[in-house]
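Action item from last meeting closed. Structure (286 res):
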């Protein structure tokens, strides 16, 4: 079997240094659609180095290394084809605000391997700390088609009951035709998001937008709409990737302000009759 769960879980963590600059932060923000309108004071916090703050989802690309999905496939005990892999979900915990430039140590390990029957799910955990202590913890859930069925632990359910009532806020965000091409400059070079031939081999009519790009677009919408534009209020952010987005489409982002400083979010593709894109999504904040 291409996935040896025992070997993968027993492997030693991989540790390395990462660094980023204000230019990396600005490029990431532009890649998730910041800067429109270009002179808006709220947007300048994402694009102008003298006012720069860091959207917490930047943690998924900081250091411009391979994204969690790719790193997970290079771990011991894991040998699968990239074309059979999808990003199933993402969880981010922020321990303190991310500086606009910095150097830190990132530790990667497989925290879990689940048997879903017709697929396997790998959970790659990345813990990042600098000289002042922990910065963030990232969990990438990697869905590998055709690799389940060995009788392993199915893992916990991540499904939530739908939010009750009408959303408190709904916003729409247009995805540019070149959005994936710009976003991949932050480090995710998976050809699924640029190469039509590769996309067809993976089962798609054309290249799709990175799930983590939608993830960033959505968090920015929540911060700007419900958190007064204050990125430092975000404590954690979790989602399940429920469907794909194609460049050129429009995202509809529905938000419910719940109890206990939790925002529930649902994201859909407008042009495909509100086809689900992100589900079981929560933003915890101060």
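Sequence:
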């Amino acid at each position: 079997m291409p996935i040896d769960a025992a070997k993968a879980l027993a492997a030693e963590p991989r540790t390395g240094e990462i660094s980023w600059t204000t230019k990396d932060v600005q490029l990431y923000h532009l890649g998730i659609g910041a800067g429109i309108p270009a002179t808006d004071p709220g947007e300048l916090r994402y694009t102008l180095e003298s006012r720069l703050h860091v959207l917490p989802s930047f943690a998924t690309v900081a250091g411009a290394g391979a994204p969690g999905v790719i790193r997970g496939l290079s771990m011991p005990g894991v040998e699968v084809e990239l074309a059979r892999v999808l990003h199933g979900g993402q969880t981010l915990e922020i321990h303190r605000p991310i500086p606009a430039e910095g150097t830190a140590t990132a530790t990667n390990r497989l925290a879990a391997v689940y048997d879903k029957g017709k697929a396997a799910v790998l959970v790659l955990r990345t813990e990042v700390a600098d000289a002042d202590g922990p910065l963030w913890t990232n969990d990438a859930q990697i869905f590998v088609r055709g690799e389940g069925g060995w009788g392993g632990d199915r893992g916990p359910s991540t499904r939530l009951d739908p939010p009750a009532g009408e959303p408190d806020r709904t916003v729409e965000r247009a995805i540019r035709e070149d959005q994936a091409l710009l976003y991949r400059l932050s480090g995710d070079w998976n050809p699924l998001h640029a190469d039509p031939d590769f996309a067809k081999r993976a089962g798609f009519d054309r290249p799709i937008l990175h799930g983590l790009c939608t993830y960033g677009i959505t968090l920015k919408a929540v911060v700007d709409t419900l958190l007064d534009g204050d990125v430092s209020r975000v404590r954690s952010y979790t989602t399940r990737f429920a469907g794909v987005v194609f460049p050129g489409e429009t995202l509809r982002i529905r938000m419910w302000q719940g109890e206990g400083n939790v925002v529930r979010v649902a994201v859909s593709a407008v042009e495909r009759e509100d086809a689900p894109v992100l589900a079981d999504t929560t933003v915890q904040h101060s």
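Note appended to the action item: Strands lie at 14-20, 85-94, 102-115, 119-130, 133-145, 169-174, 234-241, 250-257, 262-269, 275-285.
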